[in-house]
Design a protein that fits this description.
This protein has a 10-stranded antiparallel β-sheet. The protein folds into 2 domains: about 150 residues, Hotdog Thioesterase (Thiol Ester Dehydrase, Chain A, Roll); about 130 residues, Hotdog Thioesterase (Thiol Ester Dehydrase, Chain A). The protein has 6 helices and 10 strands. By secondary structure, it is an alpha+beta fold.
Amino acid sequence: MIDEKSLEEARAWIGRSKTLEGIVTPYAASCMAATLDRKNFEFQNGDDVPFVWYRLGFPELSPLSACGRDGHPALGEFMPPSPLPRRMYGGTTMTFNRPVRVGQPITKIMSIADVTAKEGRSGDLMFVTVRQEIADKDGVAITDDRMQIYRGEAVAGSTASHKPAQPPEGAQWVKEIEPSPVLLFRFSALTMNSHRIHYDRSYVTEVEGYPGLVFNGGLTMIMLLELFHENKPKATLKRIKVMARSALYDIAPFTVNGKEGEEPGTASLWAVNPTGGLAYTVDVEYEE
């Protein structure tokens, strides 16, 4: 288990916040749509920003000299210090009051909401929850509670020994995704995400111990929501809960799947890895 002193140092960051000013330009939104192979990929000022694409308005700005070993901004600045060097996306819960618009100024208030630790199957884990409130001229439009997971150094065989859970049955919508390095590069570039696990093959396999480039968790979420949008084009998202269950890699195609929920205005989405294991889930609440 993480020693008490290290956890106390990290928990001292709870409550820290910073505010960023941003804008989703027509060019950035069009680049994302083209990367996702949308047929109509050109956006104009005043168009609704697809809800989770607000992140295009806030590319991660950090001097090259401030990046850590893994390419991310070093810990101990906004994000709390951690004795565990490897970081992964854990999931998010997002509430949507209304979409923001292309070309209109938006503000993001980020704050460290919680820091916890536990011992998992592969060793010590630390969880950091960051609350992000996205506001336009009319107030808060989107709330995004995002979880980052920190892990210890890679141990030989630890990745292969984890057996993912079985996915749900009864998919009504299914689409195969080719996780190419080009797709990963374009998505990372659009968000200024320099995490090396998404583009540096020698680093991700030799240092972090993964079998291939890690498919970005945020991109997995977007792929699942694109599947939902294609099958429910008139639906308006109200809330989503995303959970990362196991990692996806660029070594083989995987599938995104979905079905209507048991309750009206709900849907279940999930990603399945090449061997049939559950990788991601998204619980959706929506209106039509």
